[in-house]
């Protein structure tokens, strides 16, 4: 059976322009690690299950809001910076079109195109101002002005995924169980599953991605547990 070349298939690449995957992954992982470490820390200090639930819930709400606002501000600021640079390039194309065409041709020559061909293509592009702007922005800034990520998409995905991730280690307490180690075990499973899911988008082996996230989360939880245990011991002595 002859395989169809990827270039002839529609959508043979994943959509990487929407700006939702990075904040979604970061939000879910951050929610998991943050609340697992938070619960491990206060649990290591010997507080009651009710206090653990209160602490974890507060961490979920505060973290989700912080992540959403942070992603919105970050993406919005980056888009505004790109817009400012695009406006600057538009002015240069209007004022010095010949110089800009030469600059574009020089860039292509540096990549190996013959000078005559590069000049010819640059002149052809110059005749269409909007296309010239897109080409110059791609070549000089490395971005596509028409495919900038949405700050609302980034904020929403980050907020929701952080909330889901932070909820996982709280589930056992919310279901009536009071064992810290059971909650941390469920959180560990959540870390592994989240890492394995991310592998679907990156084509990495699911088990290595899951183990990597599990090890990182375990290190964070171990550190906060030790801190909580030390503070709890000192408090008991005093």
UniProtKB/TrEMBL annotation:
GO terms for biological process: intracellular manganese ion homeostasis. Pfam families: VIT1. The keyword Transmembrane helix applies. Keywords: Membrane, Transmembrane, Transmembrane helix. The chain crosses the membrane at residues 154-175, 181-202, 214-237. InterPro entries: Ccc1_fam. It is a multi-pass membrane protein. GO terms for molecular function: manganese ion transmembrane transporter activity. GO terms for cellular component: endomembrane system. It is found in: Endomembrane system. This is VIT1/CCC1 family predicted Fe2+/Mn2+ transporter. The keyword Transmembrane helix applies. It comes from the Bacteria.
């Amino acid at each position: 059976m002859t395989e169809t070349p990827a270039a002839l298939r529609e959508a043979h690449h994943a959509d990487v322009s929407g700006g939702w995957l990075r904040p979604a992954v970061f939000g879910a992982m951050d929610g998991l690690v943050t609340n697992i470490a938070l619960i491990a820390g206060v649990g290591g200090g010997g507080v009651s299950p009710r206090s653990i639930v209160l602490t974890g819930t507060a961490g979920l709400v505060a973290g989700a809001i912080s992540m959403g606002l942070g992603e919105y501000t970050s993406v919005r600021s980056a888009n505004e910076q790109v817009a400012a640079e695009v406006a600057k390039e538009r002015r240069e194309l209007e004022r010095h079109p010949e110089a800009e065409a030469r600059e574009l041709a020089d860039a292509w020559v540096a990549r190996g195109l013959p000078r005559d061909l590069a000049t010819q293509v640059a002149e052809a592009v110059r005749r269409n101002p909007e296309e010239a702007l897109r080409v110059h922005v791609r070549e000089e800034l490395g971005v596509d002005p028409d495919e900038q990520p949405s700050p609302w998409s980034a904020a929403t995905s980050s907020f929701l995924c952080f909330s889901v991730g932070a909820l996982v280690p709280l589930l056992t307490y919310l279901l009536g169980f009071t064992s810290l180690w059971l909650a941390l075990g469920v959180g560990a499973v959540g870390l592994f599953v989240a890492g394995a899911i991310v592998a679907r988008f990156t084509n990495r082996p699911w088990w290595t991605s899951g183990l990597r996230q599990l090890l990182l989360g375990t290190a964070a939880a171990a550190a906060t547990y030790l801190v909580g245990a030390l503070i709890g011991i000192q408090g008991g002595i005093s």
